[in-house]
Amino acid sequence: MSTATKSETASRAGRGISDIYRAVWRWHFYAGLLVLPFLVLLSVTGGLYLFRDGIDQFVHSDLMKVNTPVVQQASGEAPVSLPLSEQVTQALSSLPGKAVRVVPSPADDLTTEVDIVPADGSGKQAVYVNPYTGDVQGQMAYRDTIMWTVRRLHSLAITGPIGNAAVEIAGGWSILLVLSGLYLWWPRGQKGGIVTLRTTPARRLWWRDLHAVSGIVAGGFIVFLAVTGMPWSMVWGAKVNELANGHNYGYPDGVRVNTPMSDMRLVDQELTTWSLEQAVIPLSSLPAASAPTAADEGEHAGHGGSAAKEAPVAATSSLSAAAIAQADIGLDKAQSIFAREGLAAGYAINLPGTPQGVYTGSVYPDELERQQVVHMDRYSGDVLLDMHYADYGPVGQALEWGINVHMGQQYGLINQLILVVACAAMVLMSVGAGAMWWKRRPAGGIGIPPLPKERRRVAGVWGLMMIVGVIYPLVGLSLIVMGALDWIWIRASSKREDNLKEASA
Questions:
Q1: DSSP 8-state secondary structure symbol assigned to residue 378
Q2: Where are the beta strands (DSSP E) in 188-334?
Q3: How many Å apart are CA 68 and CA 368, to the nearest integer?
Q4: CA distance 422 to 232
């Protein structure tokens, strides 16, 4: 091969690499436009939410912290609380209505939370009761703490479905941002700017290096947090959850469901794990005197399936409120059974809302192994279903582990600190990108990276990105829209260039 031929081949190869670089840079720029504002929001709110319990208890200490000295017993044991039913009575005397949920004091210095639907029909309220004196320390709207507000900002649930969809799209594009950024960062013989910062903040190069170095630190965390956050997404997460968990009444296959079930889902009354969002709530068996006869059951007598769900309901009209109250085991007995079943401190008790409703105890502590949901018959006290983390299948356990790490719970303080550093790196990366773009952009222009000489490279990179779009449909839809907009921009730019050439000819 002649020297000229070798030179030409090398020139083509170099141009090809340059064209791919420009195409990747172009899509990286678009990904940044879409993702970085969301990434800053998610990093700040996510970093705060890692410390949700401590922040809530500090900001709302007048409600959540016991306002009287906590005196230990002479034996050194924890102080004795009033019966839980008495605490609920005190809450209802302060705010008449219907108690629907109780969170017994999870620690000696914390109050009991009683959630009440007021008799006047206004929104649900959380009433906080001193477990030792029965004094009501105050109330606030249900799930209206500072950290619940941060959580709604984090998911953009505060803006409704459009915001939820935007976060899902941003999550997918953030994966594309990292993959394209890794290609651009990859060392190609350069010195500096790989893991060090060059020059000073006055120069664009310094901001470019800040963006690159912080991005390489944050990149793996961004992908991990995006993937583990997707189970909560509005379209992909909801559909995958339905496909994965929408059978066996929403419980894992290993859990035997042999009791009549209602039409209400657990997630409708209590914040639950991703794997149990499809789980429906069992029905209590009516007292013997009120149970339906074979004649009442009619053509459904002796059949399984939906008849097991529907037949007992027919008899509920004959039960008076007094009869239900007399037959019910009561909150204090239910609490003792939940304690016997081993629910960890901090569990919530959802109270029966209908004659065939159940007591549901649920807890989702930092330790995945202690997650537990127990449904109890309100009349007999029998445990109808007892769900543990160990009952999930391998996929469910893997997803729950990812979610738990995502929320900073799985490995305690070290988990929280690592994620805080990652959040800080994401903010630095975003600030560096913004400053770098601002210094690079032309006056009055957007500063879109230049097109490669072979423009089909842009479409080729777009095609590779669509792999992520196939996995996450909303991301795929947004890629189609962005591809169309880029094509329109390219056509318009080419037309402007042609017009300028004609004018100067």
A1: T
A2: 261-265, 280-282
A3: 33
A4: 21
Which positions ≥6 away from 241 have C-beta within 8 Å? 231, 274, 277, 278
- Do the beta carbons of residue 163 and residue 157 sit within 8 Å? yes
pLDDT at 181 (0 to 100): 96
How, if at all, do strands 280-282 and 261-265 pair?
A: antiparallel
Total number of residues shown for the chain: 505
The residue type at 492: A
Q: What are the beta bridge partners of residue 113?
A: 103, 128
The pLDDT of residue 321 is 83
Separation in Å, CA 135 to CA 23, 222, 350: 66, 46, 22
Q: Which of 104, 140, 138 is nearest to 123 (CA)?
A: 140
Neighbouring CB atoms inside 10 A of 326's CB total: 9
Query: Do 432 and 210 meet the contact criterion of CB atoms below 8 Å apart?
Result: yes
In whole angstroms, what is the distance from residue 67 CA to residue 72 CA?
15
State how far the alpha carbon of 112 is from the alpha carbons of 139, 194, 197, 268, in Å.
11, 53, 52, 22
238: Cβ contacts below 8 Å, ≥ 6 apart: none
pLDDT in tens, 68-104: 887 666 556 667 899 999 999 999 999 999 999 999 9
Which residues of the chain are modeled with pLDDT < 50?
A: 3-14, 292-317
**Residue 394: predicted pLDDT:** 85
The two three-digit tokens of residue 341, written as one number: 């079943």
Tell me, what's the pLDDT at 443? 83
Residues 6+ apart with CB under 8 A from 314: 292, 296, 297
Give residue 395's pLDDT: 82
Residue 182 amino acid letter: L
CA 90 – CA 101 distance, rounded (Å): 14
Q: Which of 199, 235, 198, 195 is nearest to 215 (CA)?
A: 195
Strand runs labelled E in 20-158 = 97-103, 112-118, 125-129, 136-141
Please tell me the pTM assigned to this model.
0.84
- Which pLDDT score, from 0 to 100, does residue 16 have? 53
CA distance 341 to 349: 13
Contact present, 170 and 229 (Cβ < 8 Å): no
Identity of residue 369:
E
**Spatial separation of the C-alpha atoms in residues 178 and 219, rounded to whole Å:** 6
Element (H, E) at 139: strand 136-141
Q: Are 101 and 127 in contact (CB under 8 A)?
A: no
Q: What is the pLDDT of residue 318?
A: 64
What's the CA gap between 282 and 264, in Å, rounded?
A: 9
Which helix (H) or strand (E) segment is 41 a member of? helix 3-49
